[in-house]
Design brief:
The protein is of the alpha/beta class and 446 residues long. It contains 15 helices and 21 strands. Helix 7 runs antiparallel to helix 8 and helix 7 crosses helix 10. The longest helix has 14 residues.
Length: 446
């Protein structure tokens, strides 16, 4: 494919490298000739020096025939304009990278629709979701990315005294908008139906809309040992999204921000978070606040070196799990050897999002669950699919699959028995590994 990447910063450069290695023809556009020269010396890509918000520049760079343009400069406004202009001159698909929540969350205006942009991506938001998912269950990321955080998924053991034990699911008062997606019993994993009942020793995968998930979880696993203690360093927008992602999910959060004005603003915005104006790795603070007793420490400042050093120090204090956000790629192979448990790079996250958009196939496997026995699939419902127009309760998906979520336009939700799939809906199914052919035939024909 012919791809244009606007912006030769961290996100644009990493995306160009990944996509060029995948065999795509890449042209990188930037106003900095020196930066472009460095890219041309190290990658097999074309470069064009100019302002990507200008139509003539994009035409000269090949935008009229490009399959995809990714606008990833440091300016949200330039990215929105570049993506919109590219679409008008003939680019097939466009992606605009944005930093500010007002654009990504579409406050007051649907920027994708108004500017005819195929997708807005915010690596900081996606990275926050990835961190939240690692603190609960790695497989949850496929679901949460699918629903932009409006849908939750967790895998957990059933309590011995759980309310749900021995009761068929049809008899349980499971809140609307939640589904039991899979049950692991000893070494067997199966997709439940209405007659299934959990037993002592089972492990379950539960999917639900964010507002109902915790009430449903209590039927199977009622946490009585207190919440996990999380310490965040840095009051960045990523930290705000992470706090929201962990809200009401059995986490006690303390957020440390050095700047007083920013700390006060965060305290007003995040009422469920303890916000402190201090540096958590200063000796006096670590001792007074008992940082070493935290279960998780996440370094979220905009300085890579500061995040790595803070994470290592937190580990030496006794924190169980430390996570560092690192914007560059120079340290990625090093940090695991010096005590950091997990490193997340927004540029890597963005590149994966861009790659996923290049996949036009009606069926994609997003994630592996339950030790590889069960997978999460993204399926686009075709017009002639045998399931179109029928209530889910009439579809014979079990024992192999369950419809875990539906996305229609900007709305994503966990469906009930009476929901109906419409043409071009995106369905997220959880089902047995190795049955992609049958699933594609069922949902995507036509």
């Amino acid at each position: 494919m012919d791809l244009i990447i606007c912006g030769a910063g961290r996100v644009g450069t990493h995306a160009a490298e990944v996509l060029a290695e995948a065999g795509h023809d890449i042209t990188v556009v930037d106003t900095d000739a020196e930066r472009l020269a460095g890219i041309a010396d190290t990658m097999d890509v074309a470069t064009y020096c100019g302002n990507c918000a200008q139509a003539d520049v994009l035409r000269e760079a090949g935008g009229g025939d490009a399959d995809l343009l990714v606008a990833a400069t440091a300016s949200d406004e330039v990215n929105l304009l570049a993506a919109a202009v590219a679409k008008r001159i003939g680019t097939a698909k466009t992606i605009a990278r944005v930093h500010h929540g007002s654009f990504f969350e579409k406050r007051g205006l649907d920027y994708e629709k108004q500017f005819s942009i195929d997708r807005l991506i915010c690596p900081e938001y996606s990275t926050a979701l990835a961190i939240a998912s690692t603190l609960r269950n790695p497989g949850a990321l496929a679901i949460e990315t699918f629903g932009r955080g409006s849908i939750q998924m967790q895998q957990f053991p059933v309590n011995d005294d759980a309310v749900a034990i021995g009761k068929p699911l049809v008899e349980l008062s499971i809140p609307p908008g939640t589904r039991l997606a899979a049950i692991t019993r000893k070494e067997e994993v199966f997709i439940p139906d209405a007659s299934s009942a959990v037993q002592k020793g089972d492990t379950v995968i539960l999917v639900g809309n964010a507002e109902t998930f915790q009430d449903a979880r209590k039927l199977f696993h009622d946490d009585k040992l207190g919440r996990r203690r999380v310490v965040l360093m840095g009051g960045t927008p990523m930290a705000v999204w992470l706090c929201r992602a962990l809200h009401d999910r059995n986490f006690s959060i303390r957020l440390f921000e050095i700047d007083r004005q920013r700390a006060e603003a965060l305290a007003d915005k995040l009422s469920w978070v303890t916000v402190m104006q201090a540096n958590p790795i200063e000796r006096s603070v670590t001792e007074e606040e008992h940082i070493g007793n935290a279960d998780v420490f996440v370094a979220l400042r905009r300085n890579d070196e500061a995040n790595i050093i803070a994470s290592v120090l937190a580990k030496t204090m006794g924190v169980t799990e430390v996570i560092a956000v690192v914007g560059g790629t120079a340290y990625l192979d090093l940090v695991y050897h010096i005590g950091v448990d997990r490193v997340l790079n927004p540029s890597v996250v963005a590149a994966k999002e861009i790659q996923s958009m290049l996949d036009d196939s009606p069926l994609q496997r997003l994630s592996s669950l339950a030790d590889g026995v069960v997978d999460a699939y993204r399926v686009r419902a075709g017009r002639n699919g045998s399931v179109i127009g029928k209530p889910l309760k009439e579809l014979k998906l079990a024992p192999h699959w369950i419809v875990a979520a539906i996305r229609r336009g900007d709305k994503a939700w966990v469906p009930g028995a009476d929901d109906i799939l419409q043409p071009n809906d995106i369905a997220l199914l959880i089902g047995r590994h190795g049955m992609e052919k049958e699933l594609k035939k069922l949902l995507s024909s036509g």
